[in-house]
Amino acid sequence: MSGVDGDALLSLERVRKYFSTSSRRLLRRPTSHVQAVDDVSLDVRRGETLGLVGESGCGKSTLAACIVGLHELTSGRILFEGTQISGLSRRRLRPFRRQVQMIFQDPYASLNPRKRVGTLVGDPLRIHGVGNEREIRARVHDLLSLVGLSPEHFNRFPHEFSGGQRQRIGVARALALSPKLVVADEPVSALDVSIQAQVINLLDDLQDELELTYVFIAHDLGVVRHVSDRIAVMYLGRIVELAPAEALYAGPVHPYTEALLSAVPIPDPELSARRERIVLQGDVPSPIDPPSGCRFHPRCRYATEICTRETPALLEHGSGRLAACHHPLDRGVVAARASGGARL
Amino acid sequence: MTKEALLEVRDLSVSFRTEDGLVRAVGGVSFCIRKGEVLGVLGESGSGKSVTMMSVLRLIRDPNAIFAGEVLYKGRDLMRLPEQRMREVRGAEIAMIFQDPMTSLTPVYRVGWQIAEQIRAHQSISPNEARRSAIELLGAVGIPNPTARVDDYPHQFSGGMRQRVLIAMALSCNPDLLIADEPTTALDVTIQAQILELIMRLKDDFGSAVVMITHDMGVLAEIADRMVVMYGGRIVEEGTREEVFYDPQHPYTWGLLGSIARLDRPKPQRLTAIQGAPPSLLHLPPGCAFAPRCPQRFSRCEARPPLHDKLGTGHLDACFLEPEAKRTRRAVGIADPGLAPS
Amino acid sequence: MTVFLVRRLVWTAFVLFAITVLTFLIFFATPGIDPAAAMAGRNTDPATVESIRRDFGLDRPLPVQYTMMMKRMFVDRDLVSYTNRGVQVLPQIKAAAPVTLSVVLGAAVIWLLLSTLIGIAAATFRGTVIDPLLMALGLVALSTPVFWLGEVVNLLTQSRFHDSLLFSWVPALGYTPLTEDPLLWFRHLIIPWIVLAVGFIGLYSRVLRSSLLEVQNEDFVRTARAKGLSERRVMVRHVLRMSLISFVSLFGLDFGALVGGGAVLVEVVFGLPGVGSLIFRSASGLDLPVVMATVIYAAFFIVLANAVVDVVYALLDPRIRLGRTQTA
């Protein structure tokens, strides 16, 4: 994948997204908030793939929806190429909408079954008023061959395709407006293993060819490592670690990352028998009432008293690794923390 | 691994009559499960892995389903057992858990009641005793405070906890065999780790054999003793875990191993994807079902390869290639152990 | 649960109030409808109309009129009919209600029993000829108009074959209270019950069948079978139990609507002096106080049925009763 040191294409600054869960009509209960995304700041650099991993309920999909403008932020802001796009009116957001497109998880549910493939892929062009029917048709043909489908698929319906092909249609549709940033939310998790590899390779090729920037969301750590330049690990709405992909896998700093990695089954019997396994106890707590201090502390084997009180800041731990932990795993980092450890 | 066979499936076929024609979901599979072992059944969607195991318990009630073959369990052919007798086997001697714990418990009954219901279906004990057993089982599967939780409803448990409840239920009658159909697929990795650990611990405590149906090779690398790889409704490879992982014989197995983005190896430039899509069970190729996607195919593949023991070690595969040819053609690095990053 | 009930109660009171206001406005404030003129009859001189207007307080502002009417209905309980001067409204409803209740209760028992049996039979014998046969019968029953069926049955039992051995037991059209002569009560009502139940049997058996088939595909049913339970137990304790949730709510709403006067056709055809008949007569005679009172009575039962359904729903489904947010 291409350069990691590009400038920021997209910046998130202290983004918060809370959902209120007010109950029925009349005599309502006190409103509680699901803290789906809480105080997330990060840059997506031009040309890179930023992986976003975490377990269900960690807020990764909500964050994706915030990035493409499907949710209004509770607070914080999002900048695209230096321009603030959060909080814009629909009309003023439109030019940016073209630049940021999304690929969804379920290729079965995200394509309207009554529309033909040609229409599905061409719709974004029509909606944004790009070109006349003839030009749109030509563009759709190009897009179909770009994603490895043949132009004769133009008049077919989604149900005539296999899961992998449907995801290709979804990719073609996302690319119709030549976006700069593509947010892929679990694009391969609904597919069979042998098909996953095809779609991953396709996304890889398209990135090189079209100079795309990806935000790639997945729960499969193997897939994320394969596609990403940098990876952000989320837990209960917060980023706990953000590091270059190889550094993250070689030596995680945050205990949650360590546990997450060790939980992934490895398709090698001997290796899998040899390695140390950290099995986290309990479930992920509810984001309605997250634990105090470090949100991971109730399940963390290194947790001490400070973890229950103070929220750790996301700090630099050498070689581009950021982690939010009072007891980071990389011992060499302790000194750095002592010197530059101003807390937010 | 020369323990006696607990369950032997002989030439099992399952087809479904549909409007478009006959869909052959399982096309003659034979394998056996030995006492106390963990047999991994690996396959993608449509490979027939779930249908095979559901058929063993005769849980497929579609009037359009046609079954053939034998399932020998303790000397009896389950396929020919009267429904009344079969019911005594189900849940008591062979138990099964399923993929989605969120929907696998009846929402309107307390979990303890649901466990007790199974116990009382097979043993004549009082409701109170059954309840006590349920509490004990909930404790054994690691549910905190089981005395209180026994009276909770399924929706008051998380996904991982519900799968624990289902495991407790499955083990409530001390089955000889536990069939687990993708029990961790719907769960997060850290919860998956908990559930796998639990199954492996209980397997020893209860002395049950386990059939683990999954699409995840990593899961099998961790827990399987032997493995069966299925494709297009047939077994394409069968062997011990080490044989299948370190000396895979079928090109489909190679493809699977190459397709996964692995954490235990340096990152490859590209994943070696298997081209094309799994075959439609309505129009299976007459020969090897994998041939249309197989980079190694040659003229003989138009006939159907038998599942044979070319190596003479009990490691079976259904491919016409000679073992030597396979060793040279197999992509480098797929199989050899010890290539892990330092 | 208490909070749930209180909330329900407050809501019910509010809905009832809104309905009375709405009905009042429809009949008293719609331009073109002049209750005074209607009462005075055709070709009366304006002076008479004016005096009627004054007598009945129809010249007062609407809120005052509304309050007066409600006061006479609920507090003084002496609301009188417009058309039959001097006849009080409330005793009429009091007399009609038990008739309607008798008709509807009996029919409900019949339709619940039969539709449950037919629904289960159809779902169990799916894939055989029995299922489509039962469902076709259900569709016929569902589409048979009640008044037509009633008239045909009347024709057969009252005139054509009344003297045959088969129908000689059928009494003349009308009603005898249960307290007077239980056997005659039953003989009067058995035919209306069946006629009223036919359509509901068709509807309910179809609804139950599709619900059963839907639930049968649920994962928990597979679990129940894998537990080694008998097919009968799986069907009754797991499948039927879950289908019951939607079935009961449907029943509650229909039952409320029928008790509230929805059985009008059957009552009129069989000459039963129930609430439906009362509504029928008062509405065709523009007898506004009676209309008003019956509408409120009907609304009360429908709202009550709604409330009961909600409570039963919560009783049947712990997910509603206990909320869904709790996890562990």
Keywords:
heterotrimer; A: 344 residues; alpha/beta; Rossmann fold; eight-stranded mixed β-sheet; four-stranded antiparallel β-sheet; 12 helices; disordered C terminus; C: 328 residues; mainly alpha; MetI-like fold; 2 domains; globular
Question: Can you describe what's shown?
Answer:
The complex is a heterotrimer of chains A (344), B (342) and C (328). Chain A is built from twelve helices and twelve strands. Chain A has helices at 60-67, 90-99, 117-127, 133-146, 163-175, 193-210, 221-227, 245-250, 255-263, 269-274, 305-309, 334-340; strands at 8-20, 33-45, 49-53, 75-80, 83-84, 100-103, 181-185, 213-217, 230-235, 238-244, 315-316, 322-323. In chain A, the strands form two sheets. An eight-stranded mixed sheet of chain A has the order 6-7-8-3-9-10-12-11, with helices on both faces. Chain A has a four-stranded antiparallel sheet with strand order 2-1-4-5, covered by helices on one side. Chain A is globular. Helix content of chain B is 30%, strand content 22%. Chain B has eleven helices and eleven strands. Chain B has helices spanning 49-56, 83-89, 111-122, 127-140, 146-149, 159-170, 189-206, 217-223, 241-246, 251-259, 323-329; strands at residues 5-18, 21-34, 38-42, 65-73, 76-77, 94-97, 177-181, 209-214, 226-231, 234-240, 316-317. In chain B, β7 (177-181), α7 and β8 (209-214) form a beta-alpha-beta unit. Chain B starts with a strand and ends in a 13-residue tail after the last helix. Chain C has helices spanning 2-28, 35-40, 46-55, 62-75, 89-124, 130-143, 146-160, 182-216, 219-226, 231-262, 264-269, 275-284, 288-316, 318-321. In chain C, α5 runs antiparallel to α6 (130-143), α7 packs antiparallel against α8 and α8 (182-216) packs across α10. Chain C has 328 residues and is an all-alpha fold. Chain C has two domains: 34-78, no CATH class; 92-327, MetI-like (MetI-like fold). Chains in contact: A-B, A-C, B-C. Chains A and B meet through α5, α6, α7, α8 and α9 of A and α7, α8, α9 and α10 of B.
